[in-house]
Design goal:
Distance between the termini: 45 Å
Radius of gyration: 15 Å
Strand order of the largest sheet: 1-2
Number of domains: 1
Number of strands: 2
Strand content: 5-15%
Number of helices: 6
CATH architecture: Up-down Bundle
Length: 150
């Protein structure tokens, strides 16, 4: 199997963890936080979508992607991410965007370097590891907040 297809399928599989959590969240729980944590479930979900779009645009160079990344800009939960339908649609769009962006990569481009202010210079393959771990990390946080948060 070609390298790009492997990365595509790896991300598609890794993203299932988030989808399982997302499918089980009632809208009223989007405001839940864990202890003194500053971020709600709604914020974290929105943040995942923002970062997927940022990766599509800035790492995988899909110039058709438009992203405002409000959670990255604000750097804190402002309490506005409380509409599950909107967040779910946003996450669906960001997921499709990153899959398209990954699929557009040449097989021999995964060792090309990309530089972002968030994580410096990495190969596309290393950056890919970053987006997988970012999504999984926050999906795990969300699952814990669902279970133990208030």
């Amino acid at each position: 199997m070609e390298t790009t297809k492997q990365f595509y399928h790896a991300y598609k599989e890794a993203r299932t963890r988030l989808q399982i959590v997302l499918d089980s969240i009632p809208e009223k729980e989007l405001v839940k936080k864990l202890g003194d944590s500053p971020n709600s479930i709604g914020f974290l979900l929105q943040h995942i979508g923002d970062v997927e779009l940022l990766f599509s645009k800035n790492v995988f160079k899909d110039d058709t992607v438009e992203v405002k990344a409000k959670t990255v800009i604000d750097r804190k939960d402002t309490g506005v991410w409380i509409n599950l339908k909107e967040i779910s649609a946003y996450l669906s769009d960001s997921f499709q965007s990153i899959l398209v962006a990954i699929a557009q990569q040449d097989d021999d481009s995964w060792e090309d370097e990309v530089t972002t202010k968030e994580f410096g210079t990495k190969t596309k393959a290393e950056a890919f590891g970053r987006i997988i771990s970012h999504t999984a990390y926050h999906a795990g946080q969300i699952a814990i907040i669902v279970k133990y948060g208030k």
